[in-house]
Fold Sucrose phosphatase-like domain-containing protein.
Amino acid sequence: MMGDMKNIKDITEQELGALRVITFDIDGVIIPTGTQLQENADGTELHMKSKQLSRQFVENLKELKKHLKLNFSSGRNILYLKSLVNEIFDEDIFLQAENGNISWFEGKLTHSSHSADYFQKLKIIRERIKGMIAGGDKRIRGFEPKMFILTSHSDQMEDIPNLVQEVDPEGELYCLWTNEGYDIGSKSMSKGKGIKKLARHLGINPKEIMTTGNNYNDAEMLKVGTGVTVEPVRVEAQYFIEHQPDELGGELLAEFLLDYYRKRA
Ligand SMILES: [Mg+2]
């Protein structure tokens, strides 16, 4: 399949001209991966450490938003997203948190709805993982505060996907490795469905939304929008962007788009 992907440099002016929105995934795309989390066994203490957007990228976003609406879609929670982009936050900035489950559009917060049975499953999984932590399993570091999905921080370990399968034999849940743990949530919602929701809200075609991503939870939104993968070996899209290990694909994409708009002006 990799052969079907095109280098972003080969995108046509017509396709670029049709874009209305750029959606940035966060971790590994516009900030380096490596968020650290540590929670104590009874959940009364939580320590989280993550990185910031680079100064240059924030300046580039300020320029880019003259041409495109900016959307940020992440597995992280809405408070984190809001604080990450607070400097540029206004009515043309859209936020989608918890893998499409929560959307902030023009001052209005909306969310997907799920059955009591779904939340019960998440509760059981959480309790079982807490039991593993209490039992001294040092591979698991705790949970990120979230409303609609469950995110455990841990090493990559089969125990967690196996547990999800055991609690959810119906297969209603996904359990996706995120490089720092697992996102566990309902298959009825995804970042891809979030992009469709944004397209409906703006009255545009989802393909007029460029999407970015580097991981399994980005696969659907890369398909729904005009996708640009920064990690083509892991997740595919119509386009890929090349970058060195110490470069962020999302930052390079912002530069690429700015180049196009500056030349056009
Ligand atoms: Mg990602």
Summary: Residues 25, 27-29, 213-215, 218 surround magnesium ion (CB under 6 Å). Residues 176 and 217 are 7 Å apart (CA to CA).
